Automatic annotation (TrEMBL):
PROSITE patterns: CYTOCHROME_P450. This is Cytochrome P450. One of its GO terms (molecular function) is oxidoreductase activity, acting on paired donors, with incorporation or reduction of molecular oxygen. Belongs to the cytochrome P450 family. InterPro entries: Cyt_P450_B, Cyt_P450_CS, Cyt_P450_sf.
Length: 389
């Protein structure tokens, strides 16, 4: 976190109160139940307005892209997109676009090769983008990922809007991607996601907006999380334990999401006067126009460390995916990709022979953190058979 956000992270991490007004930043919320209450109160807090995500994304993507919408229109668009994210639809998409790469990852690690999991995650994310925008797999490479990251990397907590040059760059990147999606929508092939959207009754512009939202929200989060999860499992001795017995795998994935919080902060704009927290002096009054910074990464710190057995994550009801009407639409897709990658790593570890708990047959050989990125993560994380030096 510190490498990604050297200024904002220490500032937010120094907040000790459940809610506090920080001049120049906004009203910062660090407590899980207050944070959830803000997310659920759409009469007072909106994703549309000064300091909210609409300020960042509307100039780039237009005003109908889920993450800057509210109310009945937003609900209706989500309802129509829901069939894309059922377990069956997601399972089919992940098997088709990522199944072969999970098998390759497992085989390479099992054969004793050293593999950079960041590069793997980028390739996976690019394949997912390719499927979402309707690109053929053979033209997808991690250049796509880098182009998206050049857009999201411009976002800073201290800068609620992009500069004109950043907007122009972001628009060019998105126009390129949505150009493919437009062609896929027009061709109407239900094997592509834009074609399937057309089949579900979504218009051309709505479909392109949704594609833009998927690409922006669903790419970097996963690329950051997958290597961080594997590093966490490795560092805590859980890689070996889970390779031998997967009883606690779901809890380990949830604990990983709690501890790393890949989407560390959410933003809202206040649209009606109200209060966050209690009236007895602990809360903060808010006025229309106030920016609310929901520090999910702090709210998720309900317990120290990483504990798949105690599983404190269970009490948070997946707060790392948000709550209420904007709860992450892509969560089933994210979970399928997480299970696919971790499954491949654990299969490879298990196939490398019997071992003691905490002595994994695969180790992190090399790691470098990423700097100047929106979502904290690694730039390189090499997993392989030899001991770290
Ligand atoms: C580990 C991975 C991911 C995490 C931690 C994550 C987290 C989140 C969070 C916290 C929100 C709510 C933001 C808010 O209320 O302000 C959200 C919304 C969203 N996510 Fe994800 N996300 C992940 C992966 C994905 C993927 C793979 C997709 C691909 C489709 C996706 C699509 C979306 C969309 C479309 C929204 C906006 C929903 C709306 O506004 O109605 N996410 N995500």
């Amino acid at each position: 976190m510190r490498a990604a956000h050297p200024v904002a992270y220490p500032l937010l991490a120094s907040v000790r109160r459940p809610v506090v007004r920080v001049p120049g930043l906004g009203v910062v919320v660090t407590d899980a139940s207050l944070l959830r209450a803000v997310l659920m109160d759409t009469q007072t807090f909106s994703k549309h307005g000064p300091g909210a995500p609409s300020d960042l994304w509307t100039p780039v993507l237009g005003d109908r892209v889920l993450l800057n919408m509210e109310g009945a229109e937003h609900l209706e668009l989500r309802r129509r997109l829901a069939p894309l994210f059922t377990p069956a639809a997601v399972g089919e998409l992940v098997d088709r676009m990522l199944g072969p790469s999970y098998t390759r990852l497992r085989d390479r690690l099992a054969a004793g090769e050293s593999v950079d999991l960041v590069a793997e995650a980028r390739r996976g994310a690019s394949a997912a983008i390719g499927a979402l925008v309707g690109l053929d797999e053979d033209v997808v490479d991690d250049r796509l990922f880098r182009r998206i990251a050049s857009v999201t990397g411009a976002v800073r907590l201290s800068r609620p809007r992009m500069t004109d040059a950043q907007i122009a760059h972001a628009k060019a990147v998105m126009a390129d991607l949505t150009g493919h999606a437009r062609a896929a929508w027009r061709a109407g092939d239900p094997a592509t996601v834009p074609g399937r959207m057309r089949e579900l009754g979504l218009g051309e512009e709505e479909s392109l907006g949704a594609v833009g939202a998927f690409v922006l929200t669903g790419t970097e989060t996963l690329v950051a999380y997958l290597p961080r999860l594997v590093a966490l499992l490795h560092d805590t001795g859980w890689l070996g334990r889970l390779a031998a017995d997967r009883t606690h795998l779901d809890a380990a994935v949830a604990e990983g999401l709690r501890v790393t919080t890949p989407s560390p902060v959410m933003l809202r704009s206040t649209v009606a006067a109200g209060r966050i927290g209690s009236d007895d002096g602990g809360g903060v009054g808010v006025r229309p126009g106030d920016r609310v910074v929901l520090a999910t990464f702090l709210a998720n710190r309900v317990a120290p460390g990483f504990d798949p057995v105690g599983n404190p994550a269970a009490n948070l009801r997946q707060l790392w995916f948000g709550a209420g009407s904007h709860f992450c639409l892509g969560a089933p897709l994210a979970m399928a990709q997480i299970r696919g990658t971790v499954g491949a790593v654990l299969d490879a570890a298990a196939s490398r022979g019997a071992f003691e708990a905490s002595a994994a047959p695969l180790v992190v050989e090399r790691r470098r953190v990423a700097r100047g990125v929106l979502i904290p993560g690694y730039r390189e994380l090499v997993l392989g058979p030899s001991r770290a030096v």
